[in-house]
Amino acid sequence: RVDFGYRSRGDTDEPPVLTDVSAHIPAAQQVAVVGETGSGKTTLGRLIARRPGSFLGLYQLARLQGEAKAFEAAEANLKKALVINPEFVAAVKYLGILYDHWGRADDAERSYRALIRLNPHDTEIRLRLGEFSVQRREREQAIEQYREAVRVHLAVLRRGVLRTHERHVAVRAALRLRRVVERARPFPGNA
Question: Tens of pLDDT along 145-173?
């Protein structure tokens, strides 16, 4: 339920534009608001667009805060957006990227793993998870992530919908997989 209230500008004789309006609109659905002139259609649209707590607005604000290196504020807004919509893939991904830039590798990895559960086809994140495994000298986990990145890209290639950026990610994943798999010696420090 969302409630809006604004103070009157002194004209108490003026009737409210909208009263007793409620709607349940499932995610990703389109709705048409129809009514007579002056019935409040535009007011309703403006209120919805400016709605406090809108997960998309919080996400966009967090992106700006992240770019300005205001990491704590960005993290808070991303978490608020995810309370409203826990399956908001872009917010989960950006939270991981934010933690990555912030130097919070464990939190970044946790966010990336949550993202893979929501979007198993994000090979760029699988590539990043492989890099975390390499940094921790966990060879088998790195191989698994790189192989999965390559496997997902091959599946996308079969469907014929691979953009140039995605091709680069696939090539990087394949090269890193080859480097890790074919390496005869153990990771440095693991004798």
Answer: 888 888 887 776 666 655 555 566 666 77
Coil/strand/helix, residue 137: coil
Q: Which stretches of the chain score pLDDT less than 70?
A: 1-21, 27-28, 43-53, 156-171, 178, 180-191
Give the closest residue to 56 by CA, choosing from 29, 30, 96, 84.
84
Q: Tens digits of per-residue pLDDT, 45-56?
A: 666 555 545 778
Q: Would you list the DSSP string of 58-97?
A: HHHHHHHHHHTT-HHHHHHHHHHHHHH-TT-HHHHHHHHH
Q: Is the dihedral of CA 165, 168, 174, 175 positive or negative?
A: negative
The answer to whether the CB of 149 falls within 8 A of the CB of 169 is: yes
3 state SS of 173: helix
